[in-house]
Design a protein that fits this description.
With about 350 residues, this protein is mainly α. The protein has 17 helices and 2 strands. A two-stranded antiparallel sheet has the order 1-2. It comes from Symbiodinium pilosum (Dinoflagellate).
Length: about 350
């Protein structure tokens, strides 16, 4: 039987705990509404909004504004937006946030800011050693459970976008730290990556392991954890290939070509989708795919139909009617009619 006194004591304790819990203030609700408003704008309108009210933006709102302009525009449009003084000022502010991140920002917000900044032209990134390097060092010192797989992928991709890969090669220990964590326990954290994050991570690892010497010479220094990462990634891509966009599949093919890994099972699984949806790829993406398949001598063509050893005759086709033609009697032909009763003679 339920004790009324004990039940009342439990209810009273729960009520006191709910009253002691911090309630969301009106300022927080207003701040979330501003972030939602900025995220719903287009890239051009967001730039105009930054010009009008950018000086009053908090750090989170500034990051959201830069992400909106980076994700809802083409590279050409981002170049045009960066020419505006207020957008340049916003990029400069994001650089300072990455260089000296405030305690209120977590690693997820910083990774979004770094990814958005990396999508703008090279001039918008400023001194990459100060901004990206500071975040890389802080991530390597954190506990592995303090960052998600997509967060690490965005940070590594942002570093790989700086210059020709010099920044990520300076922080190779961070790449090794992230890769070893992701492939630990038979790669259980690989499933945490989104498809974009998986492709970005593979590209960042390839840029970190490629060392260029001179103009046309390069060497690849891979580690055992890198090879295991590419194996796990290819296994997941083959299993979930129907849900992955063809643009990401083209990037994966190009990444394997850059790092020099021949995975015939992966290439043959991607081939039919590239051939059937090649209209969705840009010309440079398609040329990179052709170059990769040519290097590894794997055919990039439609699946063969096979030999047809039997023909099925359908009933009632036009060439061979089903019913035998009925006799129409004796055939008559029209004889030619002479134009003149006799041969005409002409005088010479």
């Amino acid at each position: 039987m339920l004790d009324p006194k004990a039940y009342f004591a439990q209810w009273q304790a729960a009520t006191q705990a709910a009253a002691a819990a911090p309630q969301p203030s009106s300022d927080d609700a207003e701040h979330d509404a501003v972030i939602h408003q900025v995220a719903s704008l287009s890239a051009v309108r967001c730039a105009a909004h930054v010009k009008e009210k950018g000086q009053n933006f908090t750090s989170l709102v500034a990051i959201e504004a830069l992400c909106t302009m980076a994700t809802k525009s083409s590279y050409k449009l981002r170049e045009d937006l960066f020419k505006q003084p207020h957008v340049k000022a916003l990029c400069k502010r994001i650089q300072e946030l990455l260089h000296q991140p405030p305690p209120a920002l977590d690693l997820r917000d910083l990774s979004r800011a770094a990814e958005a900044l990396a999508k703008f032209p090279e001039e918008a990134r400023g001194n990459a050693a100060m901004s990206m390097g500071a975040i890389a060092n802080s991530m390597s010192q954190l506990n592995t459970s303090a960052w998600s797989a997509d967060t690490a992928s965005k940070l590594l991709w942002s570093m790989a976008r700086c210059g020709n890969g010099e920044e990520i090669q300076k922080n190779k220990q961070v790449v090794t730290h992230v890769v070893k964590e992701l492939v630990r326990d038979k790669g259980r954290r690989i499933q945490e990556l989104s498809y974009d994050g998986l492709a970005h991570l593979l590209w960042a690892v390839s840029r970190a392991r490629i060392h260029k010497r001179g103009v046309d010479r390069q060497t690849v220094h891979m580690q055992d954890s890198d090879s295991f990462l590419f194996q796990l990634a290819s296994r997941r891509i083959v299993d979930e290939i129907e849900r992955i966009p063809v643009t990401l599949l083209a990037d994966v093919v190009h990444i394997h070509n850059e790092i020099g890994i021949k995975n015939e099972r992966l290439f043959r699984a991607i081939c039919p989708k590239i051939v059937s949806k090649q209209k969705e790829l840009r010309d440079d993406q398609m040329s990179k795919c052709i170059k990769a398949y040519t290097r590894f001598m794997i055919p990039l063509k439609e699946e063969a139909q096979g030999f047809r050893t039997m023909a099925v005759v359908q009933k009632g086709d036009f060439l061979r009617p089903s019913d035998k033609p009925k006799p129409q009697g004796k055939k008559t032909f029209d004889k030619p009619q002479a134009l003149y009763p006799a041969t005409q003679l002409h005088a010479k």
